[in-house]
Write a structure and sequence with these properties.
Two copies of one chain form a homodimer. By secondary structure, chain A is α+β, with helices and mostly antiparallel strands. Chain A has nine helices and eight strands. Chain A has two domains: 8-65, Arc Repressor Mutant, subunit A; 78-249, 2-Layer Sandwich (Beta-Lactamase). Chain A has a six-stranded antiparallel β-sheet, with helices on both faces. Chain A has a two-stranded antiparallel ribbon with strand order 1-2. At the A-B interface, helix 1, helix 3 and helix 4 of A face helix 1, helix 3 and helix 4 of B. Chain A binds a DNA duplex (30 and 30 nucleotides) through helix 1 and helix 3.
Chain lengths: 254, 254
DNA sequence: TTGTTCTGTTCCTTAAACCCGAACATCAAC
DNA sequence: GTTGATGTTCGGGTTTAAGGAACAGAACAA
């Protein structure tokens, strides 16, 4: 598909960075064995990253540095969604008392951007910046529902169907069938598709042309039922709408 | 000082990343001219970053991707300070009605980690992850006050004295004299040293051995005076103390 | 239409440097 | 003292990064 020319040294550098995060900090030898590379090679890369301030060293153990936080929060800020998204999200968390996330799509994956934990909310995804397959989450499905079937196929062909639980959608046809229902109702409700025992309700946030992202409320399956579920649905709808209005009119001039 | 072997291709890759942030997104040619490199070279690096999901492409313009947010928020989370820091910070912002930051030192620089904006607070540093010289901020100076003069010299020798305003400290001797006073009172108060017209008050957060960081309240110079200043001082002191207790006892098991 | 001038992309060739391996240094533990 | 685990240094062979020049495609003016 994309046999374009690539810088192999960059591959190794990025793999060092990723492995360093995966291992939650590591020494030279440990990294080298995990990456199946020579110790000296890893050492050189770590020295370079250290020189540029991208890793910190504590007694022979290397960790990623906060320089990544700079790049990361810059990137999030660039989307210019914070002012529009944060207050309604916050309000929604207060009203529903559950955990609320604002999610965007990037490169065929769902990225969790802004969170607010309500009174009784449980902490699930844990970190902003976390990525998941769009198929495996209500937030992702409601975004996909705004795309054409063709575009959905493109994404699933490339990304596949990572199975988070036994109930995670595993093929394109089932996904497209789900999306059809979501398009009708404008809301996505899932149970146990991302985490066992967790129910999620999501609504898309769209502009005139593009889809900005989605708002999702997650909580224990047995709690998000009956009246509480219905209340939640309409609360999310108005929160999503509120965000749309704020994006259109607000300080966020995109 | 450190003539160790370094991976030059990694240098160029990182410079591409940094330039991409500095230019707030750019095309191949624009990047190449800024970096004084061949277009083809930049192109190859961008392709590699794209392949790995570290940049996104919108009509021939490349931007850093949210993958950096993943690394960044992971790094911040690794410090395991959030649970201990966030609530007292939040309370302090409510009480003082000013802007509050929690700051840590990394590689001889001050890194802004957690923020809370009070009722009348003004948004100054803008993003978490932002780095500044320790000498140029109350938050940094109060951290330096916890270090030995020798260690302070090491840092200033390496980092120099970036001048943010005409009143920014410009040499080691003046800094050390300031630190002496700060050590006596346990509090750092600065005016116009980081931003013109801005006054900052900071207190360190320390454990039994190391210093975790500092809490800083910033606001307009003319507002942070008299009684409001004195109130602020004692509020910061108790907030910092609260954080120390939470770090020692809390869920944060370091 | 044609020409101009920006882009981004491809390909070739060579000098550079990445990567490995092996040796060395250092520290703990037994 | 010896063993085994680290991190570190260093020379050299061969991959390959990086530059330059040519190509493609779009936008625009004349």
């Amino acid at each position: 598909m994309k046999p374009t020319r690539t810088v192999k040294t960059a591959d190794t550098l990025l793999s060092v960075i990723n492995q360093l995060q995966a291992l939650n900090g590591a020494g030279v030898t440990e990294l080298a064995t995990h990456l199946e590379m020579a110790k000296s090679t890893v050492h050189d890369h770590l020295m370079t990253l250290h020189e540029h301030g991208y890793v910190v060293k504590e007694d022979d153990t290397y960790y990623l540095s906060l320089r990544f936080l700079d790049h990361g929060s810059y990137t999030r800020e660039r989307l210019a969604l914070k002012e529009a998204v944060t207050p309604p999200i916050s309000q929604l968390a207060d009203d529903t008392e559950e955990t609320v996330w604002f999610v965007v799509e990037e490169r065929g994956q769902a990225v969790y951007l802004y969170r607010e934990i309500g009174e009784r909310g449980v902490d699930l995804v844990c970190r902003s910046g976390t990525r998941t397959g769009l198929h495996a989450t209500a937030a992702g499905k409601v975004i996909l529902a705004g795309y054409s079937d063709e575009r959905v196929r493109e994404i699933t062909d490339k990304q596949g169907f990572d199975q988070k639980t036994p109930k995670t959608i595993a093929d394109t046809e089932t996904l497209l069938k789900d999306l059809k229902d979501i398009r009708d109702t404008g809301i996505a409700v899932t149970s146990d598709e991302t985490n066992r025992g967790v129910k999620s309700v999501a609504v898309a946030v769209s502009g005139t042309e593009e889809i900005y992202g989605s708002v999702v409320v997650s909580g224990p399956r047995q709690r998000l039922t009956g009246e509480h579920l219905e209340d939640t649905k309409s609360l999310i709808r108005s929160a999503a709408n509120e965000i749309e209005l704020r994006i259109d009119n607000d300080v966020c001039f995109r």
